[in-house]
Write a structure and sequence with these properties.
single chain, mainly alpha, two-stranded antiparallel ribbon, 5 helices, elongated, PduO-typ, transferase, CblAdoTrfase-like_sf
Length: about 190
Amino acid sequence: MKIYTKTGDKGSTALFGGTRVPKHHIRIESYGTVDELNAYIGLIKDQEISGDLKADLKKVQQNLFTLGAELATDPKKAQLKNGKERLNIVRVKEAEIQFLEDQIDAMNQNLPQMTNFILPGGHTTVSYCHIARCVCRRAERLAAALNEVEPFEAYILQYLNRLSDYLFVLARKLSKDLQVEEIKWIPTKEN
């Protein structure tokens, strides 16, 4: 398989289905940001964390590839002439969202109650979680903008929303596991 095609040399790219759009198109920004998020999830997964968390993050990465494929598909060409779906893959649905919620609840059970906002930091692995959370929120914002123009399956936005919550709680869990203090935001009051 040849890596370079030269078809994008003038600033356009093809969606799944063949439609060409500018590389700055909101659809490209959406799935490109999901791809960036996936890379950060990989970075977290490569840290010294439990095997269970690594397995959970691998599952998240698989789901993000699926979301990316859905976002990369031209809705006008999502169905083939024979009536079959162009994307012949299992989609992210309610079960994947429930998985994130279950993981959030399980992690949260053993964490101290939050009394302040928490500043990112304290440990490199924790910081990677916060970076991934921020990229996830950006992916969600871009996908929401795309959804206004070209609506897609509601599960995509729900999954991204829940994933950012998961990443926040994961950062808190890893702070506890790594025995680093969470950095509370304590605003300075004016006199």
